[in-house]
Amino acid sequence: MSDPDQGRDAARPIPGHYDSPWPAEDGGPRRQLVPRARGMALAPGERLEVTSRTVFMANMVVLRAPGEVFLQGSTPPGPDNTAFVERVDPTTLETLARSPDLATGGEWWPGGIVAHADGCLYVTHGRFCHKLDAGLRLLASRELPRACAYNSLLVLSDGNLVMKNIVRDGSMHSFFSVLEPETLQPVGGEVEVPEPSIARISMDAGDGGDMVYVVGERSIFRYRYAAGRLARDEAWSFDYRRFADAEQSYGWDPVIADGHAWFMDNGDGVFRQSLRDGGVASGPLHLVRVSLDDARDAELFTPFGVPRGTITNPPLVDPSRKIVVAYDSGNARLGAFRYAGPGRFAPLWEHAMGASNHFILYPDTGEIVVNDYDESAGEHVVVLDIESGRELGRTAIGSPVQSVTFQAPGFARDVYCCTFATLARVFPTLAA
Questions:
Q1: pLDDT tens-place string over residues 11-56
Q2: d(CA 62, CA 417)
Q3: Taking the mean position of all CA atoms in its chain, how far away is CA 423?
Q4: Which residues have C-beta within 8 Å of that of residue 245, sequence separation ≥ 6?
Q5: Which residues contact 137 (CB under 8 A, 6 or more apart)?
Q6: pTM of the model
Q7: Is the distance from CB of 68 to CB of 108 less than 8 angstroms?
Q8: Backbone angles phi, psi at 388, to 5 degrees
Protein backbone atom coordinates (compact mmCIF):
# COMPACT_ATOMS: atom_id res chain seq x y z
CA MET A 1 0.00 0.00 0.00
CA SER A 2 1.37 3.43 -0.94
CA ASP A 3 2.07 5.99 1.79
CA PRO A 4 -0.40 8.91 1.49
CA ASP A 5 2.10 11.22 3.19
CA GLN A 6 5.01 10.27 0.95
CA GLY A 7 4.62 13.42 -1.14
CA ARG A 8 4.41 15.80 1.83
CA ASP A 9 7.55 17.52 3.09
CA ALA A 10 5.85 18.31 6.42
CA ALA A 11 4.78 14.72 7.14
CA ARG A 12 8.07 13.75 8.81
CA PRO A 13 11.75 14.78 8.92
CA ILE A 14 12.99 15.36 5.38
CA PRO A 15 15.89 13.12 4.26
CA GLY A 16 19.12 15.10 4.23
CA HIS A 17 17.66 17.93 6.31
CA TYR A 18 17.90 18.82 9.99
CA ASP A 19 14.93 17.59 12.03
CA SER A 20 13.14 20.93 12.51
CA PRO A 21 9.77 22.46 11.61
CA TRP A 22 11.35 24.57 8.84
CA PRO A 23 14.88 23.52 7.85
CA ALA A 24 14.88 25.08 4.38
CA GLU A 25 13.29 27.76 2.24
CA ASP A 26 9.57 27.10 1.63
CA GLY A 27 9.71 24.36 4.28
CA GLY A 28 11.39 21.75 2.07
CA PRO A 29 12.46 20.89 -1.47
CA ARG A 30 8.91 20.47 -2.81
CA ARG A 31 8.16 24.14 -1.91
CA GLN A 32 4.83 23.24 -0.36
CA LEU A 33 5.05 26.18 2.11
CA VAL A 34 3.82 23.97 4.99
CA PRO A 35 5.60 23.87 8.38
CA ARG A 36 5.88 20.66 10.39
CA ALA A 37 3.92 22.39 13.13
CA ARG A 38 0.39 23.29 14.07
CA GLY A 39 -1.30 26.42 12.78
CA MET A 40 -1.46 29.78 14.50
CA ALA A 41 -5.13 29.13 15.41
CA LEU A 42 -5.96 32.80 15.81
CA ALA A 43 -8.91 33.09 18.16
CA PRO A 44 -11.57 35.76 18.64
CA GLY A 45 -10.15 38.46 20.88
CA GLU A 46 -6.60 38.03 19.57
CA ARG A 47 -4.79 40.43 17.29
CA LEU A 48 -1.39 40.38 15.60
CA GLU A 49 1.57 42.24 17.09
CA VAL A 50 5.01 42.79 15.58
CA THR A 51 8.63 43.10 16.60
CA SER A 52 10.91 44.30 13.81
CA ARG A 53 14.41 45.57 13.16
CA THR A 54 16.11 47.11 10.18
CA VAL A 55 18.12 44.56 8.20
CA PHE A 56 19.07 45.56 4.69
CA MET A 57 18.77 42.71 2.16
CA ALA A 58 17.24 40.19 4.58
CA ASN A 59 16.26 37.15 2.53
CA MET A 60 15.10 34.12 4.53
CA VAL A 61 14.90 32.45 7.94
CA VAL A 62 15.37 28.75 8.70
CA LEU A 63 14.97 26.89 11.99
CA ARG A 64 17.39 24.34 13.42
CA ALA A 65 17.23 23.07 17.04
CA PRO A 66 14.49 24.46 19.31
CA GLY A 67 15.06 28.18 19.77
CA GLU A 68 17.67 28.38 16.98
CA VAL A 69 16.58 30.89 14.33
CA PHE A 70 18.98 31.69 11.50
CA LEU A 71 18.67 34.66 9.13
CA GLN A 72 20.41 34.68 5.74
CA GLY A 73 20.97 37.89 3.82
CA SER A 74 23.54 40.00 2.04
CA THR A 75 24.87 43.45 1.40
CA PRO A 76 23.31 45.28 -1.61
CA PRO A 77 24.23 44.24 -5.16
CA GLY A 78 27.63 45.41 -6.35
CA PRO A 79 31.12 44.13 -7.13
CA ASP A 80 32.05 43.98 -3.43
CA ASN A 81 28.81 42.46 -2.11
CA THR A 82 29.00 39.75 0.56
CA ALA A 83 26.53 37.37 2.20
CA PHE A 84 25.98 36.72 5.90
CA VAL A 85 24.15 34.47 8.35
CA GLU A 86 22.97 35.57 11.79
CA ARG A 87 21.54 33.56 14.64
CA VAL A 88 18.87 35.80 16.09
CA ASP A 89 16.94 35.75 19.34
CA PRO A 90 13.63 34.05 18.46
CA THR A 91 11.62 36.72 20.32
CA THR A 92 13.55 40.00 20.23
CA LEU A 93 15.39 39.39 16.91
CA GLU A 94 18.62 40.58 18.54
CA THR A 95 21.76 39.26 16.83
CA LEU A 96 23.25 36.47 18.97
CA ALA A 97 25.98 35.38 16.55
CA ARG A 98 27.08 36.37 13.06
CA SER A 99 29.12 34.61 10.40
CA PRO A 100 32.14 36.20 8.80
CA ASP A 101 31.45 37.99 5.54
CA LEU A 102 30.85 35.29 2.92
CA ALA A 103 32.34 35.67 -0.56
CA THR A 104 30.02 35.96 -3.56
CA GLY A 105 32.50 36.39 -6.41
CA GLY A 106 30.97 39.78 -7.18
CA GLU A 107 27.71 38.20 -8.34
CA TRP A 108 24.39 38.83 -6.58
CA TRP A 109 21.04 37.15 -6.13
CA PRO A 110 19.25 36.71 -2.77
CA GLY A 111 20.48 33.10 -2.51
CA GLY A 112 19.48 30.58 0.11
CA ILE A 113 20.32 28.66 3.28
CA VAL A 114 19.49 25.16 4.50
CA ALA A 115 19.92 23.35 7.82
CA HIS A 116 21.46 20.00 6.90
CA ALA A 117 21.05 16.64 8.62
CA ASP A 118 24.77 16.76 9.49
CA GLY A 119 24.05 19.73 11.79
CA CYS A 120 25.71 22.32 9.56
CA LEU A 121 24.27 25.22 7.60
CA TYR A 122 24.90 25.60 3.87
CA VAL A 123 24.56 28.88 1.98
CA THR A 124 24.60 29.46 -1.76
CA HIS A 125 24.92 33.12 -2.71
CA GLY A 126 26.44 34.68 -5.80
CA ARG A 127 28.78 32.10 -7.32
CA PHE A 128 29.84 30.54 -4.00
CA CYS A 129 28.57 27.79 -1.72
CA HIS A 130 29.63 27.96 1.95
CA LYS A 131 29.47 25.53 4.86
CA LEU A 132 29.01 26.86 8.42
CA ASP A 133 28.75 25.09 11.74
CA ALA A 134 25.93 25.89 14.16
CA GLY A 135 28.16 28.52 15.79
CA LEU A 136 28.46 30.20 12.35
CA ARG A 137 32.15 29.43 11.92
CA LEU A 138 33.10 29.02 8.26
CA LEU A 139 34.17 25.43 7.58
CA ALA A 140 34.46 25.30 3.79
CA SER A 141 33.76 27.33 0.65
CA ARG A 142 33.46 26.41 -3.01
CA GLU A 143 33.53 28.76 -5.99
CA LEU A 144 30.98 27.54 -8.52
CA PRO A 145 31.88 27.09 -12.18
CA ARG A 146 29.74 29.74 -13.89
CA ALA A 147 30.58 33.47 -13.67
CA CYS A 148 27.05 34.39 -12.60
CA ALA A 149 24.82 34.07 -9.56
CA TYR A 150 23.35 30.77 -8.39
CA ASN A 151 19.91 31.38 -6.96
CA SER A 152 19.85 28.86 -4.09
CA LEU A 153 20.43 25.20 -3.23
CA LEU A 154 18.56 22.00 -2.36
CA VAL A 155 19.59 19.00 -0.29
CA LEU A 156 19.14 15.68 -2.07
CA SER A 157 18.02 12.59 -0.19
CA ASP A 158 21.60 11.29 0.13
CA GLY A 159 22.77 14.60 1.64
CA ASN A 160 24.48 15.96 -1.45
CA LEU A 161 23.73 19.55 -2.49
CA VAL A 162 22.38 20.66 -5.87
CA MET A 163 22.26 24.21 -7.23
CA LYS A 164 21.77 26.01 -10.55
CA ASN A 165 22.95 29.30 -12.00
CA ILE A 166 20.36 31.94 -12.87
CA VAL A 167 20.31 33.36 -16.41
CA ARG A 168 17.84 36.19 -17.08
CA ASP A 169 19.23 37.66 -20.31
CA GLY A 170 19.10 34.52 -22.47
CA SER A 171 22.85 34.65 -23.05
CA MET A 172 23.48 30.98 -22.23
CA HIS A 173 21.85 27.87 -20.83
CA SER A 174 21.77 27.15 -17.12
CA PHE A 175 23.75 24.32 -15.50
CA PHE A 176 23.32 22.15 -12.41
CA SER A 177 26.19 21.59 -10.01
CA VAL A 178 26.18 18.86 -7.35
CA LEU A 179 28.49 19.11 -4.32
CA GLU A 180 29.17 16.63 -1.53
CA PRO A 181 28.62 18.22 1.90
CA GLU A 182 31.84 17.29 3.70
CA THR A 183 34.32 19.44 1.76
CA LEU A 184 32.02 20.85 -0.98
CA GLN A 185 33.86 18.93 -3.68
CA PRO A 186 31.96 18.61 -6.98
CA VAL A 187 30.18 15.32 -7.62
CA GLY A 188 30.63 14.67 -11.32
CA GLY A 189 30.60 17.44 -13.88
CA GLU A 190 28.06 20.15 -14.59
CA VAL A 191 24.74 19.08 -16.12
CA GLU A 192 23.28 21.36 -18.77
CA VAL A 193 19.65 22.52 -18.77
CA PRO A 194 18.27 22.92 -22.32
CA GLU A 195 17.34 26.58 -21.68
CA PRO A 196 18.28 29.54 -19.53
CA SER A 197 16.48 29.29 -16.18
CA ILE A 198 15.51 32.02 -13.74
CA ALA A 199 13.39 30.07 -11.23
CA ARG A 200 14.59 28.25 -8.14
CA ILE A 201 14.63 24.48 -8.51
CA SER A 202 12.44 21.96 -6.65
CA MET A 203 12.77 18.28 -5.83
CA ASP A 204 10.36 15.40 -5.32
CA ALA A 205 11.57 12.28 -3.49
CA GLY A 206 9.79 8.96 -3.82
CA ASP A 207 10.21 5.23 -4.27
CA GLY A 208 11.81 5.84 -7.65
CA GLY A 209 14.45 8.20 -6.26
CA ASP A 210 14.84 11.96 -6.41
CA MET A 211 13.42 14.06 -9.24
CA VAL A 212 14.73 17.62 -9.64
CA TYR A 213 12.39 20.03 -11.43
CA VAL A 214 13.58 23.14 -13.25
CA VAL A 215 11.48 25.82 -14.96
CA GLY A 216 13.34 27.19 -17.97
CA GLU A 217 12.50 30.40 -19.75
CA ARG A 218 10.08 28.46 -22.02
CA SER A 219 9.63 24.93 -20.66
CA ILE A 220 9.67 22.87 -17.48
CA PHE A 221 12.02 19.85 -17.30
CA ARG A 222 12.95 17.24 -14.74
CA TYR A 223 16.08 15.27 -13.92
CA ARG A 224 16.40 11.94 -12.15
CA TYR A 225 19.10 11.82 -9.48
CA ALA A 226 20.79 8.55 -8.55
CA ALA A 227 24.28 7.56 -7.41
CA GLY A 228 25.55 11.12 -7.57
CA ARG A 229 24.36 11.72 -11.12
CA LEU A 230 21.60 13.87 -12.64
CA ALA A 231 20.10 12.62 -15.89
CA ARG A 232 17.30 14.32 -17.79
CA ASP A 233 13.98 12.51 -18.09
CA GLU A 234 13.62 12.91 -21.85
CA ALA A 235 9.98 11.75 -21.76
CA TRP A 236 8.81 14.55 -19.46
CA SER A 237 8.71 18.27 -20.32
CA PHE A 238 6.12 20.91 -21.08
CA ASP A 239 6.42 24.08 -23.16
CA TYR A 240 4.33 26.62 -21.24
CA ARG A 241 5.11 29.60 -23.51
CA ARG A 242 1.97 29.62 -25.67
CA PHE A 243 1.80 33.33 -26.58
CA ALA A 244 4.04 35.87 -28.27
CA ASP A 245 7.08 36.90 -26.24
CA ALA A 246 5.68 40.40 -25.87
CA GLU A 247 2.57 38.92 -24.20
CA GLN A 248 4.06 36.19 -21.99
CA SER A 249 7.33 35.89 -20.10
CA TYR A 250 9.16 33.23 -18.10
CA GLY A 251 7.98 31.23 -15.08
CA TRP A 252 9.16 31.12 -11.49
CA ASP A 253 9.54 28.49 -8.76
CA PRO A 254 7.55 25.24 -9.11
CA VAL A 255 5.54 23.72 -6.25
CA ILE A 256 5.37 19.92 -6.24
CA ALA A 257 2.00 18.99 -4.73
CA ASP A 258 -0.94 16.64 -5.32
CA GLY A 259 0.77 14.84 -8.19
CA HIS A 260 1.52 17.99 -10.19
CA ALA A 261 4.07 20.76 -10.66
CA TRP A 262 2.48 24.21 -10.21
CA PHE A 263 4.01 27.56 -11.08
CA MET A 264 3.13 30.97 -12.51
CA ASP A 265 4.49 32.80 -15.54
CA ASN A 266 5.03 36.46 -16.51
CA GLY A 267 8.00 36.54 -14.18
CA ASP A 268 9.72 39.41 -15.99
CA GLY A 269 8.90 42.43 -13.83
CA VAL A 270 10.37 45.70 -12.62
CA PHE A 271 10.74 46.20 -8.86
CA ARG A 272 10.54 49.80 -7.63
CA GLN A 273 9.83 49.44 -3.90
CA SER A 274 7.11 47.06 -5.09
CA LEU A 275 6.07 45.12 -8.18
CA ARG A 276 2.88 47.18 -8.64
CA ASP A 277 2.57 48.19 -12.31
CA GLY A 278 5.87 46.41 -12.92
CA GLY A 279 4.80 43.77 -15.45
CA VAL A 280 6.85 43.70 -18.65
CA ALA A 281 4.76 41.25 -20.73
CA SER A 282 1.50 42.75 -21.96
CA GLY A 283 -0.74 39.76 -21.19
CA PRO A 284 -2.28 38.43 -17.99
CA LEU A 285 -0.34 35.98 -15.87
CA HIS A 286 -1.15 32.28 -15.92
CA LEU A 287 -1.10 29.49 -13.38
CA VAL A 288 0.55 26.45 -14.94
CA ARG A 289 -0.30 22.88 -13.88
CA VAL A 290 1.69 19.89 -15.17
CA SER A 291 1.01 16.28 -14.16
CA LEU A 292 4.01 14.43 -12.76
CA ASP A 293 2.74 11.21 -14.35
CA ASP A 294 2.35 12.58 -17.87
CA ALA A 295 3.50 16.08 -18.89
CA ARG A 296 0.94 16.03 -21.73
CA ASP A 297 -1.66 16.44 -18.99
CA ALA A 298 -0.95 20.13 -18.50
CA GLU A 299 -2.73 23.45 -18.78
CA LEU A 300 -2.53 27.20 -18.35
CA PHE A 301 -5.23 28.82 -16.22
CA THR A 302 -5.80 32.58 -16.20
CA PRO A 303 -6.83 33.48 -12.63
CA PHE A 304 -7.40 37.24 -13.00
CA GLY A 305 -7.27 38.21 -16.69
CA VAL A 306 -5.69 41.61 -16.03
CA PRO A 307 -3.04 42.93 -18.48
CA ARG A 308 0.63 43.13 -17.46
CA GLY A 309 0.37 40.65 -14.65
CA THR A 310 3.62 39.70 -12.95
CA ILE A 311 5.04 37.72 -9.99
CA THR A 312 8.42 36.50 -8.75
CA ASN A 313 7.43 33.62 -6.47
CA PRO A 314 5.42 30.38 -6.30
CA PRO A 315 1.68 29.80 -5.87
CA LEU A 316 0.28 28.01 -2.81
CA VAL A 317 -1.46 24.62 -3.12
CA ASP A 318 -3.59 22.93 -0.45
CA PRO A 319 -4.18 19.33 -1.63
CA SER A 320 -6.39 18.45 1.34
CA ARG A 321 -8.94 21.09 0.28
CA LYS A 322 -8.14 21.03 -3.47
CA ILE A 323 -7.45 24.79 -3.35
CA VAL A 324 -4.77 26.74 -5.17
CA VAL A 325 -3.97 30.34 -4.21
CA ALA A 326 -2.65 32.55 -7.01
CA TYR A 327 -1.76 36.23 -7.04
CA ASP A 328 -0.76 39.02 -9.40
CA SER A 329 1.74 41.39 -7.79
CA GLY A 330 1.69 43.78 -10.74
CA ASN A 331 -2.05 44.38 -10.37
CA ALA A 332 -2.45 43.75 -6.61
CA ARG A 333 -4.71 40.70 -6.89
CA LEU A 334 -4.92 37.64 -4.64
CA GLY A 335 -7.41 34.82 -5.08
CA ALA A 336 -8.24 31.20 -4.26
CA PHE A 337 -9.66 28.59 -6.63
CA ARG A 338 -11.00 25.08 -6.10
CA TYR A 339 -9.50 22.72 -8.66
CA ALA A 340 -11.21 19.52 -9.78
CA GLY A 341 -9.46 18.27 -12.89
CA PRO A 342 -8.40 19.78 -16.21
CA GLY A 343 -10.04 23.11 -16.95
CA ARG A 344 -12.01 23.11 -13.71
CA PHE A 345 -10.99 25.98 -11.45
CA ALA A 346 -13.89 27.39 -9.42
CA PRO A 347 -13.28 30.82 -7.87
CA LEU A 348 -13.71 30.94 -4.09
CA TRP A 349 -12.67 34.51 -3.27
CA GLU A 350 -10.56 37.40 -4.53
CA HIS A 351 -8.98 40.40 -2.77
CA ALA A 352 -7.26 43.55 -3.97
CA MET A 353 -4.00 42.91 -2.10
CA GLY A 354 -0.34 43.66 -2.76
CA ALA A 355 0.77 40.05 -2.27
CA SER A 356 4.17 39.04 -3.57
CA ASN A 357 6.29 36.88 -1.25
CA HIS A 358 6.56 33.20 -0.29
CA PHE A 359 3.40 32.40 1.68
CA ILE A 360 2.81 29.90 4.52
CA LEU A 361 0.02 27.31 4.68
CA TYR A 362 -1.23 25.69 7.91
CA PRO A 363 -3.39 22.79 6.68
CA ASP A 364 -4.77 21.89 10.11
CA THR A 365 -6.36 25.31 10.69
CA GLY A 366 -6.82 26.42 7.07
CA GLU A 367 -4.80 29.57 7.75
CA ILE A 368 -2.53 31.10 5.13
CA VAL A 369 -0.01 33.84 5.85
CA VAL A 370 0.49 36.36 3.04
CA ASN A 371 1.79 39.90 2.63
CA ASP A 372 -0.03 43.04 1.55
CA TYR A 373 1.91 46.09 0.42
CA ASP A 374 0.43 49.52 -0.12
CA GLU A 375 2.54 52.55 -1.04
CA SER A 376 0.86 54.76 1.55
CA ALA A 377 0.67 52.20 4.38
CA GLY A 378 3.80 50.09 3.76
CA GLU A 379 4.11 46.35 4.20
CA HIS A 380 1.72 44.17 6.22
CA VAL A 381 1.59 40.52 7.24
CA VAL A 382 -1.95 39.15 6.91
CA VAL A 383 -3.50 35.84 8.04
CA LEU A 384 -6.47 34.63 5.96
CA ASP A 385 -8.83 31.68 6.02
CA ILE A 386 -8.08 29.75 2.83
CA GLU A 387 -11.68 28.59 2.26
CA SER A 388 -13.46 31.93 2.67
CA GLY A 389 -10.72 34.52 2.29
CA ARG A 390 -11.81 35.99 5.63
CA GLU A 391 -9.14 38.15 7.23
CA LEU A 392 -8.17 36.73 10.64
CA GLY A 393 -5.38 39.13 11.51
CA ARG A 394 -3.20 41.88 10.09
CA THR A 395 -0.29 44.05 11.21
CA ALA A 396 2.11 46.54 9.63
CA ILE A 397 5.73 45.42 9.96
CA GLY A 398 7.48 48.75 9.41
CA SER A 399 9.00 48.00 6.02
CA PRO A 400 8.93 50.73 3.34
CA VAL A 401 9.37 48.11 0.59
CA GLN A 402 7.29 45.14 -0.51
CA SER A 403 8.52 41.69 0.46
CA VAL A 404 9.55 39.64 -2.55
CA THR A 405 11.51 37.23 -0.37
CA PHE A 406 10.61 34.67 2.28
CA GLN A 407 8.45 34.06 5.33
CA ALA A 408 9.02 31.31 7.89
CA PRO A 409 7.16 29.97 10.92
CA GLY A 410 8.58 30.34 14.39
CA PHE A 411 8.49 27.96 17.33
CA ALA A 412 5.63 29.68 19.20
CA ARG A 413 2.58 30.57 17.06
CA ASP A 414 4.68 33.20 15.33
CA VAL A 415 5.91 34.02 11.84
CA TYR A 416 9.06 35.70 10.53
CA CYS A 417 8.87 37.93 7.45
CA CYS A 418 11.87 39.21 5.49
CA THR A 419 11.98 42.22 3.19
CA PHE A 420 14.96 43.99 1.65
CA ALA A 421 14.71 46.49 4.53
CA THR A 422 13.32 44.62 7.54
CA LEU A 423 13.21 41.43 9.58
CA ALA A 424 9.89 41.13 11.44
CA ARG A 425 8.38 38.68 13.91
CA VAL A 426 4.56 38.57 13.94
CA PHE A 427 2.69 36.91 16.81
CA PRO A 428 -0.80 36.90 18.37
CA THR A 429 -1.72 38.71 21.57
CA LEU A 430 -4.97 39.50 23.33
CA ALA A 431 -6.67 42.58 21.95
CA ALA A 432 -6.72 45.59 24.27
A1: 999 999 999 999 999 999 999 999 999 999 999 999 999 999 999 9
A2: 11
A3: 17
A4: 281
A5: 99
A6: 0.97
A7: no
A8: -105, -20
